Amino acid sequence: MPKLLIEIITEILNYVEEDDINTLHSIILINKDWCQVGISYLWEKSFNNVKYPFKNFYKIISIILFYLDEKQKNIFKIKDNRIGIPTKILFDYSYFIKQIDFNKLLNLIKIWLNNNKLFRPNLEKNHFINNNDYFIYNYSINYSIEVQEMLAFFESIFYIIIKRSKGIENLFIDINKTFFIPNDYFGILFNGIKEDNNRSLIGLKELICDGNFHKASIIDKIKECSHEIIHLKIYPWESSIYLTWNDDLKSRNIKELLQVQKCLKSLTYSTVSNFGRDTIKGLQGMIEDSLEIIKIHGDIITNDELKYLKKCKRLKKLSFMLIDFNFPINILSNILYPELEVIEFTCCEFTIDALENMKLFIKNNGKNLKEFQLNQDPSGIPGILLSVSENCYNLVNIFVNIRNRNNMLILLKIMSQCKNLQKIHVGYDGKPKFLADPFMNEFTQLCSSNLLELNLSNWRISLDIFETVLEKCVTFLKVLKISCDGDIKDLEIMVQIFSELHGRILKDFRIQEDEYDFDKLKLVEMTWLV
Q1: Are residues 319 and 401 in the same domain?
Q2: Which three-class secondary structure string do you get for 223-240?
Q3: What is the pTM of this model?
Q4: DSSP letters of 281-339?
Q5: Are 439 and 478 members of one domain?
Q6: Are both 407 and 468 inside the same structural domain?
Q7: Which domain of life is it from (predicted)?
């Protein structure tokens, strides 16, 4: 194969999905030129193997452990050649790593330890305690030797990456509850990052910090190093009757982090207790001119918070989840976001006055709205869907739970007005409840050729109406999800016939049946190539 210019190879690699490990691994085996360029792509997000699972992916741990010195290798008891730690390497692989996902790294370490247990001796329960001088975290007899071992490996690998990476861009500290992590563990690791290694966090673009562990030291270290974060998600300690509130994170930590950001575009945070409601006061300075997406989760919102949110004039998406609008929010009725495109409500509650203010907000901002999501029963916030139908004529996507005739009529009105709809989702919250057949002839007539995704899984549709929907929409839809009755074989034949008749190739087709459903409804999901 003739050599290609490096620029051409790079351009080709840009079309490969960044988490397609299988393809990237094959590319580096083509020849030396492809390997030299492709190796950095393979290692940039080397822990991101969920979408494209790669056989023996855990062996990446052996490669990273190459960087340990001989004393550390002796402590970890990893001198056996069968473990597969290389004696030399062709590239400085850790230099290319740009993403650390704590949950995935912990999982890889767990798999690696399990697959190499035959090649390593059992460790005494005091093994890491006796070697505490070689670790930042002070390991304790209170934890089993298995927990100490996993945490010790994680610590060493984390510091290898932080020391050698050319720069971490994505940092996900979002821990699966199956892992036992001491409250202070991650905070101590971040405090232990040496000053000359702070450079690895300077270019951080995305931070997710969510879970029941101490976060103050993490956030303060990020505040010190990272001033160009684009996407930020921070949730405090999860509060429930089963958990003891033990969070060291204060609103001050978050406000100070926000106020040093130069180009933050997306912010997701929880308003649990006064932590979140005070945090929003950090929306000042440069953030006012850069923030485009804000997602607020939990508790309440009042005028005190809205006066800071009002300053962010470049907002394009506004999302409220589990918010109680039970206090005066009259400021909302005067807020105008010229670039607002998406509004989302999930399980929110409104007083009568607050609801009237929200309707005025939709009236003032509906002109440019492209997407409206109402992930709850519209009857819980009466009039909100009607307000959308009267003010939002340029919707492209609509997600709304339709459960009765009145709301169905409003949806039909929206469809008749919005000629460029590409996605319609009527929600799915369990067993389909709404009998939609009487409205489906008009509904299908209003489905334009611009429509790409149609999710009717929350409605009960007869086999005859299913045929009507297919006949009308099979020519232009990319995705169709629908709940209907009928025999599985009949449904399969019908989908195949209409697809072939209109030259559509099925990329994915599945039928799910709930054996406990007395109505024997089937959830039919179809995806066609476009």
Answers
A1: yes
A2: HHHCCCCCEEEECCCCCC
A3: 0.87
A4: GG--TTHHHH--EEEEESSB--HHHHHHHTT-TT--EEEEES-EE-S--GGGGG---TT
A5: yes
A6: no
A7: Eukaryota
Inter-axis angle of helices 437-446 and 463-473, nearest 10: 0
Looking at the DSSP assignment, which residues form a beta bridge with residue 435? 460
| Segment 202-222, tens digit of pLDDT | 999 999 998 888 999 999 999
Residue 55: is its pLDDT beyond 70?
Answer: no
Is there a domain that residue 373 lies in?
Answer: yes
Nearest Cα residue to 169 out of 124, 225, 229, 111: 229
Of 411, 445, 474, the position where a domain reaches its end is: 411
Helix (H, G, I), strand (E, B) or coil at 398: strand
Main-chain phi, psi angles of 28, to 5 degrees: -70, -10
User: Containing domain of residue 460, as a range?
Assistant: 422-530
Q: What percentage of the chain's residues is helix, strand, coil (to nearest 5)?
A: 45, 15, 40
User: Is residue 215 within 8 Å of residue 209, measured between CB atoms?
Assistant: yes
Residue 414 parent element (H or E): helix 405-417
Q: How many domains does the chain have?
A: 3
Residue 322 lies in a domain: yes
Are residues 381 and 437 located together in one domain of the fold? no
* Residue in 290, 284, 291 with CA at minimum distance from that of residue 307: 284
Q: Phi first, then psi: what are they for 455, rounded to 5°?
A: -115, 105
| Alpha carbon of residue 76 to chain centroid | 34
Q: Hey, what are 438's tokens?
A: 């009487």
Structure tokens at 220: 């303060």
Which helix (H) or strand (E) is 221 found in, with range?
helix 216-225
Instruction: Tell me the pLDDT tens digit for each residue of 484-495.
Output: 888 889 899 999
Instruction: Give the span between the Cα atoms of 136 and 155, in whole angstroms.
Output: 8
Q: Residue 392, Cβ neighbours under 10 Å: how many?
A: 23
Q: Is residue 489 part of a domain?
A: yes
Q: Give the pLDDT confidence of 78-92 residue by residue, as tens digits.
A: 988 899 898 888 889
* Nearest partner of 205 among 179, 168, 180, judged by Cα: 168
Would 473 be classed as within a structural domain?
yes
